[in-house]
Structure formats: C-alpha cells, structure tokens
Amino acid sequence: MAKRIDISGLSAFYGNHKAIEDISMTVEPRSVTAFIGPSGCGKSTFLRTLNRMHEVTPGGRVEGKVLLDDENLYASNVDPVTVRRTVGMVFQRPNPFPTMSIFDNVAAGLRLNGSYRKSELNDVVEKSLRGANLWNEVKDRLNKPGSGLSGGQQQRLCIARAIAVEPQVLLMDEPCSALDPISTLAIEDLIGELKERFTIVIVTHNMQQAARVSDRTAFFNLAAVGKPGRLIEIDETERIFSNPSVQATEDYISGRFG
Ligand SMILES: Nc1ncnc2c1ncn2[C@@H]1O[C@H](COP(=O)(O)OP(=O)(O)OP(=O)(O)O)[C@@H](O)[C@H]1O
Ligand SMILES: [Mg+2]
C-alpha cells in the first residue's frame, strides 16, 4: 500500500527549457505533503515527474531519480503505464469521461487494466464511491452521465476513479481550485481520510488549505523569471507556517512576495 517516495537530483525540461532544477526530498507514506509556491515555479511539472506524466509532453525530459520504496521509476526496465497505475493523479479541473455513466467512469481504470472479475466490479465501484464520499449522492443514478454532476461531485467522481485502481500514491494538482467552499471542505475532509491508506501529494495556492490538510509543506520558488524552479525548503507544515527557516518562505506565506 502507501509508499515512500525518495526524490534525488531531479530536474525536468521542456525541450531546452529547464523548468525545475536539482530537487531532492522525501515524501512519507500515509501522509499529506503540500507543494506551495508562486505561479510558474514548476509545482505541476514536478508533480507530473512523480508518475512519469511529464514525459508525455513533447520535449518533456527528466534527469535524476524518483524512488518508490527503493525502486527507481525511471529505471530502463520500468513500464510508465504501470507507474501511472501505482501513482494516480487528480487534476485541477474535474475531468470525468463526458459520455460515460457515473458507474463507467469509476470502472474505467479497472476495465483498462483488465484486472477484475465482473462480479467484483460492482463492489469496487461502490467502495470507491464511498471512499470518495460520493456514494449517497449518486447511488440512485449510477447510469446517468458523470458530466451531469456538480463541479464538486465531479471532482469526487475523479477521486473515486483514481482510487478504484488502488494506487499507492495519489497526486492532486490544485484539486479544489475550481470548487465552491463547501465542495472544497468536502474534498479536504476526504483527503484527511484518504491519507490513512495512500501517500498524498497536493499542489495548492491556498495557504489555509495547505495548513489544514498537510503534514509537511514544500515551498518552491524561482530565483528569477526564466530560471528553473527550485525547492527552497520542506518541513513540518506547522513549522513552515509559524517559523520557516528561509526568508523567502516567510515572505511568500505572509503575502509579502514579489
Ligand atoms: N507544456 C509545456 N511546454 C513548455 N513549457 C511549459 C509547459 N508546461 C509548463 N511549462 C513551463 O514550465 C514552467 C513551470 O510550469 P508549471 O506549470 O510546472 O508551474 P506551476 O508552479 O504549476 O504554476 P501554476 O501555479 O501557475 O500552476 C513554466 O515556466 C512554464 O511556462
Ligand atoms: Mg500548476
């Protein structure tokens, strides 16, 4: 289940442009790690290197290592498709498959893997929807399209879809930024529950959210426009928000940035 991630000397490029540089850090299992930092400092890029999605972008290339419980995700014998199954992702905009029913959205990953027995499918879909705190709202309309749900429900549907394949790590890139405050709180509660089973990394621009949901916080910054983003510091969330070690972190969290 939940796995530890150990990143060392990681840089990521888009063609000749180096977006992030020399990042080393660890992510503890069954914990929530928040990534914060100004726009363009490479948070999303970094997140996508953790499940080999970065290289899907034309010109996308990575240097360095990402170990998942001691296995390098970038070793030549590792299949990126397997990595993406193990390290799931939830995006900023809820992106349910629009023509698919709620049921089929959740079942999609399992069907793709071919790793289920038909009798199991109903159980897994229910369990995942319950896990995403959505079951009660949709149990009577599982065959209706996923696109007919509210934004917050769609995001929980995407979380259900992501957890249905039992990943070990869940990456979330600003999962609440398109949601209203009530849906945001629902997702935050859910993150608190999910961390008992998964290793979670969340990117957020919302400092209160980082403070509420995460155990550790990593602050990223750019030395200057056009320079690659770097990890400035990572620490217990409480410490980052009360007494960070680096002045730039203090400036950022107190809004004195730029
Ligand atoms: N597909 C792409 N092709 C080329 N450059 C890209 C691409 N995506 C991102 N970049 C560049 O990589 C750098 C980091 O972008 P990234 O999206 O990772 O930042 P971010 O910290 O997630 O920003 P935001 O907070 O605005 O989401 C930026 O300079 C950006 O312009
Ligand atoms: Mg981003």
Automatic annotation (TrEMBL):
A cellular-component GO term for this protein: membrane
Pfam entry (one): ABC_tran
Ranges in a coiled coil: none
The entry's keywords: ATP-binding, Nucleotide-binding, Translocase, Transport
Gene3D superfamilies xref list: P-loop containing nucleotide triphosphate hydrolases
Spans traversing the lipid bilayer: none
Any one GO MF annotation of this record: ATP binding
Domain ABC transporter per the UniProt entry, residue ranges: 5-247
InterPro entries, A to Z: AAA+_ATPase (IPR003593), ABC_transporter-like_ATP-bd (IPR003439), ABC_transporter-like_CS (IPR017871), P-loop_NTPase (IPR027417), PstB-like (IPR005670)
Alphabetical GO biological process terms: phosphate ion transmembrane transport
PANTHER family found in the cross-reference section: ABC TRANSPORTER I FAMILY MEMBER 17
The protein's name in its UniProt record: Phosphate ABC transporter ATP-binding protein
UniProt organism field: Streptomyces microflavus (Streptomyces lipmanii)
Gene assigned in the entry: pstB_2
